[in-house]
Structure to design on (138 residues):
């Protein structure tokens, strides 16, 4: 369990930042977004865990040599893309459109993910091609 406990503080910071960002969404998407985030919050016992989404940047620490703030930003971006994909999956799996009200929320999550990546990989940076690849695959 050291693979999780070693990053508990980082995870708390990332989810707190995600909560802060989502709380700025227009009403009612802010409340819907915070509730949706809570269902995947790795800090909460009853949540659905998706450790690889938000802990992968920290697990790669030894081979990337990135500063902690970059790993936090990558983890935050991963949280938003995870939320985006789970909503897309919910919508595709629903037979009667039960989750269609989450579609605007999914778009806000996607925009947050892209915003973080654009900040980290500005046009002309040596790693800008990684952003293009990630956006195409998203």
């Amino acid at each position: 369990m050291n693979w999780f406990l070693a990053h508990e503080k980082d995870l708390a910071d990332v989810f707190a930042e995600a909560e802060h960002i989502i709380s700025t969404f227009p009403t009612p998407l802010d409340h819907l977004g915070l509730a949706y985030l809570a269902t995947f919050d790795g800090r909460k016992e009853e949540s659905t865990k998706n450790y690889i989404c938000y802990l992968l940047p920290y697990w790669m620490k030894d081979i990337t040599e990135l500063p902690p703030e970059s790993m936090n930003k990558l983890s935050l971006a991963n949280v938003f893309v995870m939320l985006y994909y789970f909503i897309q999956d919910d919508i595709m799996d629903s037979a009667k459109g039960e989750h269609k009200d989450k579609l605007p929320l999914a778009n806000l999550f996607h925009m947050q993910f892209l915003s973080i990546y654009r900040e980290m990989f500005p046009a002309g940076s040596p790693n800008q091609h990684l952003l293009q690849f990630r956006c195409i695959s998203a």
